[in-house]
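We emphasize that the prediction below concerns an isolated chain of 155 residues; any contacts that depend on oligomerization or on bound cofactors are therefore not represented. The input was used exactly as deposited, without trimming of termini.
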Amino acid sequence: MTTEYRLQYLRGYRLRVFLAVADRIIPADGEAPGGGTLATAGVADWALARTAPGLRRLLLLLLYGVEALGIFFGGKPFSFNSPAARDRQLRWMEGGRVRALRLGFFGLKSFVCMGYYTREEIWSVIGYEGPVRPDRPFPDAMIRALCRGEARVRP
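Result of the prediction step, given as a token string:
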């Protein structure tokens, strides 16, 4: 039996932008998929559900800002821009003078990295054996299933 996780916060428009950002933060290579997958979004969404409501609202609002700012970097919304234009925009946000965007970028990057690197299928690609100890169960069975690739993520 396959467990199923239904996205709560990263749906529709926000999911499209999150996946586009994640794909540039962790691009695919020959051995591993990039960060822009539903599996990454599933773990990030699970964590968003456990984030303080005010902070969660700001992070989700940032996705709209990222999409709109794409106009200035490639002439189109972020998720429709070329990879080079997306990279330019994310570098600008990461090192820019606008503190709110800089902090927002690091928050978004944290969720992307958490969503990607907590997945056990990625561990073998990066040579990590993992922290799993049989004597310490995960506090939530769903996050365990998401990290093990045992849960199907649905938008």
